[in-house]
Design goal:
This protein has 461 residues and is of the alpha/beta class. It contains 17 helices and eight strands. Helices cover 54% and strands 10% of the residues.
Length: 461
């Protein structure tokens, strides 16, 4: 069972097969399965003939493990075991190494060495706020410019600010064009005695104050860095603006990934609205970890009522053993009410057990076949065995009732999103009880994602 929806289905295969699609960006809040979704899309696209590279910004190692690679770094590595005519490569953004590569590519060796050895640069490239998002933009631009792959799939940072990379060019431009940076660059641009006079007289008060706050050596490191980077600043802005335009181009598709939960879909709505404001092409919503039930005809209310009947002991006459509870003819003098109540209970239990919709619980293994429960009645006819079977069955019925409540809540939450954004195409991916650890798991997820969530399975990481 999946959620009923009026939203248009998201045609994943059509998106991946279209040669005009060159970049797919998976975005969303943290913990909704963006990394696994990106990897599954990469596997499917490669096995359908595309030459794909998956770029993850997520420092977790799940992607490498699921693709059978020891580790990922800033260099694309080919994934073995892809079943199809295409190729799959994967990489993980190394923020500092990407920054180093930019410096080495756009500065002469002497100036590059001065920049790379500068203490302020080392701090900036290792963890300055916003550097990761900007370097993600740079790496995406590099991959696209190389033209070695006909499809690039990007897994964005796992945070509330997953769209910060859209702001990176603007923030960088504001930083480089700021009054403070221009002021620090002025002495170097003036040069000679005039520059030194300006520095010693015009900036003496400012540098003295900053020196006390930040440290004189730190301020000198910043000035040295800015002087060395001066000729590269224009290149940063130019490349960032070009990548931003690339994200707006028709060959790019954004997929918003979310779970069918209130907070996650609220974030998804934010992403949808932000992408629209930035004129970024949105392909649709991947609704991940959707719960389902093969016994949806058994409502939560009926399941709870049946569980209460079992727990109250009104079905089984413990004084006469199991015969009556197994559906045999009622002995003379037995209550007609018991026989009448017995039929809806048996129907309710059969609905659950026949479809084997047992969530994992401390009492029942997820892999157990619930249809074997009635056979347990063949155990020795003791009060203890009857009680155990009935308690277990009542527990399963209550778990089913809880599952149906989850389904109803997810449906209401998703309906609110689709009511606000009816134009957004949706693909549902049902939940799995465990993580994905290999290509086979990614392939199974991709199959279900392409099917729009009409079969069982799903992403969990």
């Amino acid at each position: 069972m999946t959620l009923d929806s009026a939203a248009a289905p998201l045609e994943i295969d059509s998106l991946l097969d279209d040669p005009a699609t060159r970049i797919v960006v998976c975005c969303g809040s943290g913990g909704v399965g963006k990394t696994t979704t990106a990897a599954a899309l990469g596997v499917r696209a490669a096995e359908r003939g595309r030459k794909v590279v998956v770029l993850t910004i997520d420092p977790a190692r799940r992607l490498a493990q699921s693709m059978g690679i020891d580790s990922l770094d800033n260099t694309p590595r080919q994934v073995k075991g892809v079943e199809g005519p295409g190729e799959l490569h994967a990489m993980m953004l190394d923020m500092k190494r990407t920054f180093d590569e930019i410096v080495e590519a756009h500065a002469d060796p002497e100036r590059a060495r001065a920049i790379l050895e500068n203490p302020f640069y080392q701090s900036l490239s290792a963890g300055f706020a916003g550097t990761q998002e900007y370097m993600a933009m740079e790496k995406l631009g590099q991959l696209r410019a190389r033209d070695d792959w006909d499809l690039i799939i990007v897994d964005t940072p796992p945070s509330r600010s997953a769209l910060d990379f859209l702001d990176a060019p603007k923030r960088l431009g504001s930083f480089l064009d700021g009054k403070f940076i221009r002021l620090l660059m002025t002495p170097a641009k003036m040069g000679g005695r005039a520059g030194m006079k300006f520095l010693n007289v015009g900036m003496s008060m400012m540098t003295g104050t900053l020196g006390k706050l930040l440290g004189g050596q730190f301020l000198r490191d910043v000035q040295t860095f800015i002087t060395a980077m001066d000729t590269m600043f224009g290149g940063f802005r130019t490349r960032a603006d070009a990548t931003y335009r690339l994200l707006q181009a028709p060959g790019t598709a954004f997929l918003v990934v979310a779970a069918p939960e209130r907070d996650a879909l609220r974030e998804a709505a934010y992403f949808v609205e932000r992408l629209a404001a930035e004129e970024m092409p949105l392909a649709g919503l991947v609704l991940n970890r959707v719960h389902g039930s093969g016994a949806a005809r058994l409502s939560a209310e009926r399941a709870r009522a049946a569980a209460e009947i079992l727990e109250d002991g009104r079905i089984v006459d413990q004084g006469t053993g199991n015969a009556q509870s197994r559906g045999s003819a009622a002995p003379d003098g037995s209550s007609p009410e018991a026989s009448e109540t017995h039929e809806p209970l048996e129907a309710a239990v059969s609905a659950v057990t026949a479809d084997s919709v047992v969530p994992a619980s401390p009492h029942v293994s997820h892999e157990s076949d619930v249809s074997t429960i009635p056979a347990a009645s063949a155990a020795p006819e003791s009060v203890a065995s009857v009680t155990t079977v009935e308690q277990l069955t009542a527990g399963l019925l209550r778990l089913h009732a809880e599952r149906m409540q989850v389904l109803a809540r997810e449906e209401r939450t998703r309906d609110r999103f689709t009511a606000l954004h009816p134009e957004v195409a949706v693909a549902e991916v049902p939940a799995l009880p465990g993580d994905v650890h290999d290509l086979a798991g990614l392939r199974a997820i991709a199959d279900r994602l392409a099917a729009g969530g009409t079969t069982t399975g799903g992403t969990t990481s």
